[in-house]
Amino acid sequence: MASKYHNLARQLENRIEGLGYNASLPSERELAIEFDVSRMTIRKAIDELVRKNKLYRIPHVGTFTTDKKLYKKMDVFLGFSREVEQAGGVPSTELLEYSLMPADERIAGKLDIPVGDFVYKIIRLRKKNHVPLIIDESYFPKDIVPLSEAIVETSIYEYIQDELALNMVFADQKLVARFCKEEYRDYLEVSAKTPVMYVELTGYLEDGRIFEYSESYKNSERYELVIRSHH
Q: Which of 21, 166, 168, 211 has the highest local Cβ count within 10 Å?
């Protein structure tokens, strides 16, 4: 027999289907009065719909209906913040690591630089409307893309284009399904048995230099990739 909050979650899910995207829900107090249940039951039902990506919360503001999955066109060089904004959402980034390190053999090979050259290692949790979508583990050669923590917390691509005046022309990307790294699962809210989209990206400048190598883990329940073919 389904619990009271499971039944309530189903009722709320049916209701929000007709509300459209980014619509505000009544407060927990108002819903508790309407459904004649405790606020704890309302909260547990909303928690269930947040886990299902039907709702999202903005602290101290309210609870809202989600829009569709975030779409990424793989033939377009667009940073995460711009992707989210174009989809009508609010982007945010949690910086998990920002360090300067000598490139080991693997990273040097990926960036086509000598072993020991300094690179920035950046790990970021990317969110849309406070919902975690992606973990990016990125490497940038210091001699090509000098960074600061302030830049990393905003848009690196805009900085490269606008401040450094470098022309990013294309990226090689490899997409596979795999299980998420153990240390990233809690951040992405996925289990050990939930496959994620794993994308390796190598970004090139107009002069042929590699300016970025990244490995991304994308929650496939909340993110979708679109590949466009030309002929």
A: 211
